[in-house]
Amino acid sequence: MDSVFRRVRIQSRLLRQCLAECLGVYVLIVFGCGAVAQVTTSENTKGQYLSINLGFALGTTFGVYVSRGVSGAHLNPAVTLSLCMLGRHPWRTLPFYVFFQVFGAFLAAATVALQYYDAIMHFSNGQLTVTGPTATAGIFATYPADYLSLWSGFVDQVIGTGMLLVCILAVGDRRNTRIPPELAPLLVGLVVLVIGVSMGVNCGYALNPARDLGPRLYSYIAGWGEQVFWAGGGWWWVPLVAPCVGALVGSVVYVLLIEAHHPELDLHLEKADQCQTVDNKLALELEGVELDLNSPKGCPNEGQEGKKAASGKGEEG
């Protein structure tokens, strides 16, 4: 089997990163929306609101573990946009990351619908509705509470996503707190959990355009119809735009208030720290340290070792 896997190995680094993002988001949404489906269709007898919080939190944790070594585990277009704005991720990859993040969420919604098809039909009496006592569209996408205005919902999502980015950047900032890289996914999951238990009542704390758009598109195609876009006073655009605004605001706040004021480190110590964490792309990317492995000033790599080996052979000859 090893020889078969070697033959099908994808050579394009960008494609590998995009597939990792797709699978990471898929894991996140399968666990998160799966928890919503279980709570909804069981009418709170097989879980409650905290079950949903845990589903999304642990889904985020394992989604990050799945993809962090390949793509940096953004799993969220708002995160990718913020890292591009901070100069820590190339702009040219932004549309590709976003597409595969949304696609992963779409596939995950389809998986949850397949797994819970009978339960959804039983709970809704065969009627796929967006609002009402037997509504099931909320299994897939977020919708506002009846009392919430669009403006208040927009502010809610800006604040929630801003807090998400502040905490994510803090977790990845090794000049602030030296967190073991292998614990970073768990801590990011805990950030999602605390946002859910403190900011989820208004509109379900989407915080992630891909998490909302992919499943919403699936529910539109799968039979819930155009109402998935018009419910809540045309709510659908808020979870797309507001998280991006909030992520940019949160990123700027953290950099201006914390990161920009770190004391200058000794160059050699900083390089040694980079070399120790080169395998953890998530920690490096969130800290803003994108190593150029082709640079003679970077950490040792296969290319440089190969050059040294070739040089040695030339001298021996």
Mind explaining what this structure looks like?
It is a single chain. The protein has 317 residues and is an all-alpha fold. It has a single domain (10-260), classed as Up-down Bundle (Glycerol uptake facilitator protein), CATH 1.20.1080.10. It has helices at 2-7, 13-41, 49-71, 77-85, 94-115, 117-124, 150-172, 184-199, 209-224, 227-234, 238-257, 267-276, 281-287, 302-316. The longest helix has 29 residues, at 13-41. The two termini are 40 Å apart. InterPro entries: Aquaporin-like, MIP, MIP/Aquaporin, MIP_CS. It catalyses: H2O(in) = H2O(out); glycerol(in) = glycerol(out); urea(in) = urea(out).
CATH superfamily: Glycerol uptake facilitator protein
Helix percent band: 55-70%
Mean pLDDT: 87
Name given to the CATH architecture: Up-down Bundle
Give me the CATH fold name: Glycerol uptake facilitator protein
Radius of gyration: 22 Å
CATH top level is Mainly Alpha
N-C termini distance: 40 Å
Structural class: mainly alpha
Ranges where pLDDT stays below 50 over 5 or more residues in a row are: 277-317
- Overall geometry comes to globular
Task: Please report the total strand number as a whole number.
Answer: 0
Major pleated sheet: none
Strand content: under 5%
Give the helices and strands as they follow along the chain: HHHHHHHHHHHHHH
Helix tally?
14
How many separate domains make up the residues? Answer: 1
Organism: Anguilla japonica
GO molecular function, one term: water channel activity
InterPro entries: Aquaporin-like, MIP, MIP/Aquaporin, MIP_CS
Protein name: Aquaporin-10
